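Memo to structure team: turn this sequence into structure tokens by end of day. - J.P.
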Amino acid sequence: MWDKQIAVDQVKAITLKGKIFFGVGAINAFENIAEELKNEGIEKFLIVTGKNAYISSGAWEVIESTLLAKGLKFSLYDGVMPNPTVEQVDTAVEVARSIDAGAVIG
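Reply from structure team:
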């Protein structure tokens, strides 16, 4: 099975103008990631997802509880589909700007 061949605890970070955290197990490292971003002064987040995936995957429970426990603010935009349209991206950008988001969680 694929899960025996992939190191699910391996999370990578790409640092450009900002950072990108990714990897199969990134959700398991979210508490540390949120703490790192908070230490960098990022306290407002936009969560971008489809209508159901974030709940059915269990990711929402981890993300919401972590952000609330750390006193971080967030807004949810669940209006995207695979291969999002320009309009969906524009709406997400508007939501991010309206709350002055410092990071996006997808």
